[in-house]
Amino acid sequence: MSKIIALFNQAGGVAKTTLTMNLGYHLSQISPPRKKQNYRVLLIDLDPQATLTNFMGLEPEQLESTIYDAVIDQKKLPIHSDIHGLDLVPASVDLSSAELELVVADMRDLRLKYALEPIQNNYDFILLDCPPSLGILSYIALVASTHVLVPIQTQYKSFLGAELLLSTVTRVRSLPNRHLQIAGFIPSMYDARNTQDERTLNAIQEQLAILAPVYKPIPRSTAFADAAEDKQPLAIFQPKHPAVKILKQIAIALTKLS
Amino acid sequence: MSKIIALFNQAGGVAKTTLTMNLGYHLSQISPPRKKQNYRVLLIDLDPQATLTNFMGLEPEQLESTIYDAVIDQKKLPIHSDIHGLDLVPASVDLSSAELELVVADMRDLRLKYALEPIQNNYDFILLDCPPSLGILSYIALVASTHVLVPIQTQYKSFLGAELLLSTVTRVRSLPNRHLQIAGFIPSMYDARNTQDERTLNAIQEQLAILAPVYKPIPRSTAFADAAEDKQPLAIFQPKHPAVKILKQIAIALTKLS
Ligand SMILES: Nc1ncnc2c1ncn2[C@@H]1O[C@H](COP(=O)(O)OP(=O)(O)OP(=O)(O)O)[C@@H](O)[C@H]1O
Ligand SMILES: Nc1ncnc2c1ncn2[C@@H]1O[C@H](COP(=O)(O)OP(=O)(O)OP(=O)(O)O)[C@@H](O)[C@H]1O
Ligand SMILES: [Mg+2]
Ligand SMILES: [Mg+2]
């Protein structure tokens, strides 16, 4: 049964894309117990700003077909295979008109779910990289998911958005997707030398652990942006980086989701 | 003639809100030549995530009236006066339905411009804090503005969005707002110890200075998030912080805009 995991947080710049790419990579490097082949992983870029598509080495403007065509025109999902062992459905700026076009579309809420159905049994994990908004794209991602993973920056601003984030998940669980579970919270860009980061991390652990696992924080490090510039997961760019172990552990935890 | 300046960049988490609040503060502390009174400054929160509203000490959920009511229902702008010497029109999550409601609204593109007209002569500067998207809210902010100020993070990801950002400004200048000028680019969250930041800053200076001034970079510093948590501009929270001088210089440059 494939797990479809939305990396969701309406706040901007909190590492959704970075974690989609890096956790996707680590998942694709794990082989399930008693199996020879590794987990098969598909990443889907749902952001009109197409950052994941760029980070994975593609040029959004040069693409003939993107997730837009699948969601709006019910075309086949355009899958690019084996980028660092991962498959990818790219995005481009075309997706920015999708928010408006979906307003009046039939079966709007289920469009992404339907687009995934033909291929979802080809994958063990499908990760959905959400845009920084509470708009329709994030919403249909949550409707299509089995789980939601929440990167949350260890800064004061993150708490301002937490309530809205959780009420959005609750809203989706109340009707269009009763089975949606929170896989966990990932404290991101954690700067241990900074008291605000430390206090925010403690608050995250105290207040959110009751809802879902709070994973180990991903440290703030310039290596992430450097790896992105080289179009590589951190584990390939700088294998000995301390964050690599943490990413691996989170990936292993994701393989144990029910 | 009041200057209406949109802090615009579709990328998330690049310091739009932080700079709206801090530059607004410094502008309000300057008195024009040969005048006794300081410049009068109004901040407008255009983000449904209402970060500026929060940073300025208000609780979005408790507000009776926000920018939403002015733009959608043509109500009077709800102005909160004298927060650190600044006036503020707050936002709340109500604004998230505005993007959809504006799709079919009459005179959609001019709605914010019209909302500002009754009060714009009461202010020397009106700063518009845009959300992290290329949606209608950012668009009507650009249509209503005399100038656009672009915070741009000195990281690789920022270059991916630069072209789209500039083409959006060009599009607005071609028809709905022929007078829109780029006031400048503000390199933000600059970490001088990091080579990627340094290279990105150089690239920003080389490629964008031909279009508009590239201001001095705002250094990355935990003091900004700490000041925000205390609901204060940096200059009040930590007056001796090195970034305060830089913010002041940018504010002075803004007073010289034609
Ligand atoms: N742990 C980290 N330490 C330092 N920088 C990081 C870290 N994780 C991500 N970054 C960098 O921070 C920036 C924001 O990350 P990213 O784009 O993944 O966030 P996002 O939530 O997807 O943003 P958006 O809301 O725009 O989609 C990028 O430049 C990225 O390279
Ligand atoms: N120079 C800086 N150094 C370090 N942190 C900063 C700096 N400027 C802003 N920040 C912090 O970075 C985060 C993002 O800043 P901010 O909210 O102003 O960005 P934004 O572009 O308005 O984000 P959004 O796209 O979500 O509206 C905040 O937590 C803020 O306190
Ligand atoms: Mg992203
Ligand atoms: Mg903001």
Q: Work out the largest interface and the residue count of each chain.
A: A-B, 35 and 35 residues
The bound ligands are: adenosine-5'-triphosphate, magnesium ion
Biggest β-sheet description of chain A: 7 strands, mixed
CATH topology of chain A: the name is Rossmann fold
Helix-and-strand structural type of chain A: alpha/beta
The overall pLDDT average of chain A reads 95
Distance between the termini of chain A: 10 Å
By DSSP, the count of extended strands of chain A is 7
Strand order of the largest sheet of chain A: 3-4-2-5-1-6-7
Overall, the morphology of chain A is: globular
In terms of DSSP E residues, the strand content of chain A is: 5-15%
User: Can you identify the CATH superfamily of chain A?
Assistant: P-loop containing nucleotide triphosphate hydrolases
Q: Architecture of chain A, CATH level 2?
A: 3-Layer(aba) Sandwich
- Residue stretches of chain A low in confidence (pLDDT < 50, at least 5 long) are none
Helix content of chain A: 40-55%
Radius of gyration of chain A: 17 Å
